[in-house]
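A favour, since you know our C-alpha cells better than I do. What I am after is a single protein written out in full by you. Could you add the entry underneath, on a fresh line?


***
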Amino acid sequence: MREYLRGLKMGLVGLLGPPLLRLLCYTLRIEEMPSGYSQRLFSSGSGVIIAFWHSGMLVPAYVGRGQGIRVLISQHTDGEYITRVIGNMGFGVVRGSSTRGGARAMVNMVREAERGHFLAITPDGPRGPREKAQSGAIFLAKRTGLPILPIGLGFSSCWELPSWDRFRIPKPFSKVVLVFGEPISVPEGLVEEGVEGYRQALEESLKGLSQGAEAIIKGSST
C-alpha cells in the first residue's frame, strides 16, 4: 500500500506540477540581465553548462522549457519529484550526483553534450551545503569542453521552504530577476590541483550574481 501511495503521489506531481508551474510563472515579471539573453543563447546553438543554486531552480526551469536541456538530477526521492515535473516540460534528465551514481551520470552527461544538448547543473545539490559549489561542474566542463554559464536570481517576494537549500517559490505577480554571468571555461588539461581554483571561481560568481540580482530587485522597488 505504501508503494502504491508513493507511486500515486509521484504521478500526481508529474501531472499537475508542470501546468501549475507554467501558471505561476505566467503571472511573474521575469527580467533578464542582459535583456533577452536566454533567447539569444538557445537560438545560437552554442552549448554551455547552465549553473544556478538549487534553491532557485523553478524559474530557470520555466525559462528553459522545451529546449531539450539535459539536467543532472539526484537519485534521492526529492530528485524523483523534480524529474517528474521537468521531464514533462521538455527537459531530458540524467540521474546521479556526487554521492550516488556519480561516475555513470558524468559519462551520460558527456554523451548528451556530444549530441549537441545544453546541460544544466545545480552546483550545491543534491544535499548541500547550501550555496557551496561542489567540484562536479568543473569536472563536467573539463570533460565536455563546454563553458559554465552561471546565473544568479533575485526575488521581490517568495516563499522559502524549511529545506536544506531554503528552496524558493516566487509568489504570484511578483518579480524575478535573472542575471547571466560571464562563462567560465575550464581547460581540458586541468590537473587535479587546479580544480579548487575553478570551483571557488564558480562559487564566487554565483554568489556575486545572486547579490547583484537582489540589488536590482531592491532598486526597482524603491
Residues 27-220 form a domain with the Cobalt-precorrin-4 Transmethylase; domain 1 fold (CATH 3.40.1010.10). The longest strand covers residues 148-155. The first helix runs from residue 2 to 27.
